[in-house]
Amino acid sequence: MEWKESIYMIFGAISLVGAAATAYQIYRLTLMDAKARGLKHPKFWGIFAMSGNNSGGLLMYLIGRNKYPVINLPDSEKQKMEKRKKCAGVGLIFFVVGTIGLIIGNVYP
Q: So where does this one cross the membrane (predicted)?
């Protein structure tokens, strides 16, 4: 195996880990938000928000949730949400770095 193939695998793994971490954090954030707003079936909304290639589920959730004000969100839950937002940002950074590495590797052989 050449060193270039190893680099592709490394960047691919970084991108995959970043995408999985971002999707999981979006699921958890949507789940917490749906519970705080008193929506029925919060797990369904979490899965629906992270599904699809074009973020259509997340947009539908964000538009539909406006009818429901936040009922109860203690400070501990707010802190958890902030932590998850930061983790989602880190996952997104991993995804972008891995993808840019793959693109650059293909453009400049």
A: 7-24, 44-63, 87-108
